[in-house]
Amino acid sequence: MVLVQTRFYGEPPTMKRDVYRALLIVALAICGGVLTYVPRLHAADEWRAKPKPNASDRFFGRGEIPELRIEISEAELQKLRQDYRKYVKAKLTENDKEIYPDIGIKLKGAAGSFRGVDDRPALTINVDKFAAKDAPQKSFHGVDKFHLNNSVQDGTYLNELVCSEIFRAAGIPAARVTHARVWLNNRDLGLYVLKEGFDAPFLKRHFVNPKGNFYDGGFCQDIETKLEKDSGDGPDDHSDLMALVQALRTPKPEDRWPLISQRLNVDQFLTFFALEVMTCHWDGYCRNRNNYRVYFDPVSRQAYFFPHGMDQMFGDTNASLQERGGAMVPQTVLQNPDWYTAYRYRQRELQPFFEPDRTHRIVNEAEYRLRPVLMKIHPDRAREISDRAREMRDRLTARWTSIRDQIRSEPLPLQFNAQGEAIITDWIEKVESGNPKLARQATPGQPDLLTIEAVANQNCVASWRASILLPPGKYKLQVRAKGINIQPTESGSGKGAGIRISGGQRSNQLSGTVDWTILEHPIDIDSLRKVDVVAELRATQGTVQFQADQLKIVRLK
């Protein structure tokens, strides 16, 4: 079986999309494969803007690395020392040519990255913060606000850049990134990561309507706290956040899921969550309730999550893809079996964004741009960036390998149809005793059969097995089976032919000669776990046939 899942990010032309799908179907038909299309949960992207290219696209697209000289008077410096979160006036000069005379500047960072203004601080710059109202509006390459990160927790200076590219390529709004060399009052601070700010131009780039409420996640806070509202024409009472929280806390699942769908763009969140896990963003929202932004779109009236603070990424390259997060949104969303299934498939859809050819190209291009800049500082810095870039490529390769291997080895949740049924596939043979014959008979026009034949006078214990992932719930295992002259033996798990799950006992059985009949076995799962389904024969003689295309799990209401 060939499984193909298609997902389109951004806004591909409808005709091209349909042609592409048609070609996939034709190709698979030629190869004898099966096409399984896994749709997006929300097919329409009414919220997504289609911005025209502007100065910011050219600036970040070329990866320009400007020289930025910041001048702050002693009086304004003293204000900054007293309250580092409050903007003070300063002057910015770019490449000794372009002058921004009345910028606002403040310090940024938290426990790990914060440095005082007399050290090597991380900075936020608002270009027109103190500009006169009647003065022409000025921007920095089409951006009103940007950050200069000191990268004290990322010696490669590349994590923000690489992860921003991955998130945006996957359709998640993320700040664009380049670098800069920075001076503060003639003090050479060296290389910084220059990152686009979450401001009005940012929201206009990504949303049809940028006037919704935009919240800063703050430091290790979940959404039930009164997050700082950065912008928006919506209510100031946090009622949009509280409505989402109430939806997440709704007791009955049948009421909870529709309410969450009204308040949260689940499809966008599943991609956001999957990428945080795949990039090992241990200090992001889903795992640590940190480094995130939330926007409530006035068009869909749903919440959208953005990543932030991506300077400590790919640390544990073997981190599990089964991470369920410590924040309330991922923990609740993954309790929905359909959303959990979609999440696991989403990880597979996102796997190509981590291929080494793709991620290494981002690193190589950045290294090429950074070397001459660092050479001006000191030749050792240029050599160092090459070493750090090599380390980054090694980590990206290791993470890609781990993602690939985990996806290959972990079973997918079953996809249930409208009737609540899921056919089990990917069977393997297991012989515990005797010398039985196991065969899979797939004759055109005939049922697909899993056959076990016991050799006479031998104690046969053999089975067909398949690993599946089941969320909590009540199910029944069901199959059409036929027995031919079965002489059963009995053990702790059952006798003759039958079906069960590994580690359990069964009451269903076939003995002697029995025409096609339906066997059933109850399954009660209290938490998400892997289950091994067993279709077996325990006999000294005889043959059992299980109809593979009728061997299924039925979800009970």
Which descriptors apply to this entry?
alpha+beta; eleven-stranded antiparallel β-sheet; disordered N terminus
In short:
The chain has 557 residues and is α+β, with helices and mostly antiparallel strands. Helices cover 29% and strands 29% of the residues.
What does this structure look like?
- With 557 residues, the protein is an alpha+beta fold.
- The protein is built from 13 helices and 22 strands.
- The chain has helices at 14-31, 55-62, 74-82, 159-169, 200-206, 239-248, 253-263, 266-278, 285-288, 328-333, 337-350, 356-377, 379-409, and strands at 67-71, 88-94, 98-108, 122-126, 145-149, 177-184, 187-196, 214-216, 228-231, 292-296, 303-307, 421-423, 428-433, 437-441, 449-454, 460-470, 473-488, 490-491, 494-501, 512-525, 529-547, 552-555.
- The strands form 3 sheets. Strands 12, 13, 14, 15, 16, 17, 18, 19, 20, 21 and 22 form an 11-stranded antiparallel beta sheet that branches. It has a 7-stranded mixed barrel with strand order 1-2-3-4-5-7-6. Strands 9-8-10-11 form a 4-stranded antiparallel beta sheet.
- Helix 6 (239-248) packs antiparallel against helix 7, helix 8 crosses helix 11 and helix 12 packs antiparallel against helix 13.
- The radius of gyration is 29 Å and the shape is elongated.
